[in-house]
Amino acid sequence: MQTAKKVKAEFLTGPQVQERYQKSPVTIWRWINDSALGFPQPIRINRLNYWRLAELEAWEAAQAGQSAA
């Protein structure tokens, strides 16, 4: 009998995302609103933004692939 594997989603807050990329809140806002950049959209909870770590890592990998091409 198979058991369901629980996947724990990790989230980063706005300040954690700013620290991760060493960018200001305004730059992160610009990234969110630039559809060509493809930056992951945040999840809003009580007027605060949270990002899924897995989505940020996937975006980083895509950016690395584009710069290598």
What is the compact description of this entry?
With 69 residues, this protein is an alpha+beta fold. The chain has one domain.
Give an overview of the whole structure.
The chain has 69 residues and is α+β, with helices and mostly antiparallel strands. It has one domain. The protein is 48% helix and 16% strand. The protein is built from three helices and three strands. The protein has a three-stranded antiparallel sheet. It is globular and about 40 Å long.
Task: Compile the SSE list and pairings.
Blueprint: E1 11-13, H1 14-21, H2 25-33, E2 43-45, E3 48-52, H3 53-68
Antiparallel strand pairs: 1-3, 2-3
Label this structure with key terms.
single chain; three-stranded antiparallel sheet; 48% helix
Strand content: 15-25%
Order of helices and strands: EHHEEH
How many angstroms separate the termini? 45 Å
How many whole angstroms does the radius of gyration measure? 14 Å
